[in-house]
Amino acid sequence: MTSEEIGYRGPTACAAAGITYRQLDYWARTGLVEPSVRPAYGSGTQRLYSFRDVVVLKIVKRFLDTGVSLQNIRSAVQHLRERGFRDLERMTLMSDGATVYECGSPDEVHALLQGGQGIFGIAVGVVWRDVESALSQLHGERIDTGETLVGHNPADELARRRNRAV
């Protein structure tokens, strides 16, 4: 199955992104990172996040951990959303703490560093692979049928047996 055919419920997205459910809920309600597969419609419904949504959640977490303001993160996420998250895996996001910059090439990164100010970067490809690895061990859900997809967690023998029985 391709990553576009799988969705992840809130607790799974939290585990892969390294955030709390409270953060996830707040970010969804305020529109920072909304689930692109299925939003929650009232009490009892489950949000469903795409792989790219989870990557963006982890990027937001990394920016928060380094002290970037939520307002600047919101601008960066809006920029990524407007681009349609194209080429996300090949991108480097840089920040001086006040502004977030998108760099698509080593020359752009070098040009930013020439400014002489303190800058940090997030290589999105590394975040992408971290999320891929984490989600491979967690449960997903087929978008078309809702079938639970069991991750490759060797400690989850009960879930594997349950899946075989169905």
UniProtKB/TrEMBL annotation:
SUPFAM superfamilies: Putative DNA-binding domain. Keywords: DNA-binding. Transmembrane segments: none annotated. Pfam families: MerR_1 (PF13411). InterPro entries: DNA-bd_dom_put_sf, MerR-type_HTH_dom, MerR_fam. Residues 16-79 form the HTH merR-type domain. GO terms for molecular function: DNA binding; DNA-binding transcription factor activity. Signal peptide: none annotated. This is MerR HTH family regulatory protein. It comes from Streptomyces misionensis. The lineage of its organism: Bacteria, Bacillati, Actinomycetota, Actinomycetes, Kitasatosporales.
